[in-house]
Amino acid sequence: MLATELLFVYVYCLVDDAIKAGVLLIPRRPGPAPACTDAELLTIALVRHLLRRRSENGFLAEVRRDWPCLFPHLPDQPEVNRRTRWLRGAFEQLRATWAAAVPPDPVQQIDTSALPVKHPSRVRGPDGWTGPGNDLAARFGRDAAHAEWFYGFRLAIRTDLGKRIVRAWSIVPAAVDERTIGTDLACGDAAGIDALLQDKGFNGSRFAGEMAAAGIEVIIPPARAQRKKMPRTLQRLIARYRNRVETSFKEITDQMDLARHGAHTFDGLLTRTVATIAAHTLLLTLLADGPDANIN
C-alpha cells in the first residue's frame, strides 16, 4: 500500500514537473502570487479523489490535521473551491498527458452513465442547471443500469478495452441517442481505433456506416439468430469483454463518488468530473508503472 504522505509527494512531483515542463498552461490571475501554489491545490484535489473522499471540506480538514507540514499555507475552503474551479483546464491537460503516455488499445468501448444533479421528486420546473451558452440543460433520463429515472446529465466516455484508460469524455444530455455521442467521441482519434465493442444500444446501420467511413469496425453482441453463424470462440470473447467499460464507470461514479458529486452549479459539476477522471487516469497509470500497485 502506498502511504498517504508518499502519495501526496508523488502526485505533487508529477504535477509540479508538468508545470515546469510547460505541459500545463494555467491562465494567469491578477494580483500577487498566492502562498499556496497551483501545484498544491491540484495535488490535493487529485489525491482526494484517489482516496475516495467525498467531502471537499472534510478532506481539507483532514489535510490540515494530519499533513500540515506538506501544505503549510492551505487557504480556507471557499478559496480552495474557487481556485480549483479556475484550474479546471489543468486537470484535463494532466489527464490527456498521462493517457498519452500509454499506447491506446486498438479495440475500445463507448458508453454513457447517469450523472444526477438532484432527486427527481425535487424538480419543480426550470432551474439553473445549464451548461455554457445554455445549450446543455439538466433533463430527465432513464438509468438502465439501476432501472430508475434520474434528473441531470449523462457522462459519456471512450475507454481502452484492455487498459480501461479514458481516452475521451463528455457531459451530454440525459436523454440522448448514444450513437450520436459515439460518433463524436470516436472520430477525433479514428486513426488509432480499429474496432469498437459496443452494447446493443449502438446497433444501427447509420452508426455502423459512419464508423466504417472512419475505418472503425463496430462489434455488437449477436442476437439469438446471429449466434448460429458466429464462432463460439468469438461469442465467448465478446461476452467476456463487453462490460469492461462498466468497470470504469463503477470506479468513477461509484467508488470515486462522482454520482454523488454534491455540486450546486454546472461549473462545479464540470470541475468535479474532470478532476475525477484525471485521478482515475492517474490511478490506472500508477497501477501500470507507479511505485505501488495498490492505493486505497
Kindly summarize this structure in a few lines.
This protein is an alpha/beta fold and 296 residues long. The protein has helices spanning 4-20, 38-50, 56-66, 77-86, 88-100, 178-187, 205-213, 224-227, 232-241, 244-255, 266-289; strands spanning 107-118, 139-143, 148-160, 166-173, 195-197, 217-219. The chain has a domain at 105-261: Nucleotidyltransferase, domain 5 (2-Layer Sandwich).
Structural notes for this entry:
- The protein has 11 helices and 6 strands.
- By secondary structure, the chain is α/β, with parallel strands linked by helices.
- It has a domain at 105-261: Nucleotidyltransferase, domain 5, CATH 3.30.420.
- Strands 1, 2, 3, 4, 5 and 6 form a 6-stranded mixed β-sheet that branches.
- Strand 3 (148-160) and strand 4 form a beta hairpin.
- Helix 1 (4-20) crosses helix 2 (38-50), helix 2 (38-50) packs across helix 11 (266-289) and helix 5 packs parallel to helix 11.
- The longest helix has 24 residues, at 266-289.
- It is globular.
- Residues 290-296 have low confidence and may be disordered.
Keywords:
296 residues; alpha/beta; Nucleotidyltransferase, domain 5; six-stranded mixed beta sheet
- Report how far apart the termini are: 7 Å
On the 0 to 100 scale, the average pLDDT is 89
What is the H-and-E element order? HHHHHEEEEHEHEHHHH
Number of helices: 11
Helix-strand layout with pairing:
Blueprint: H1 4-20, H2 38-50, H3 56-66, H4 77-86, H5 88-100, E1 107-118, E2 139-143, E3 148-160, E4 166-173, H6 178-187, E5 195-197, H7 205-213, E6 217-219, H8 224-227, H9 232-241, H10 244-255, H11 266-289
Parallel strand pairs: 1-5, 5-6
Antiparallel strand pairs: 1-3, 2-3, 3-4
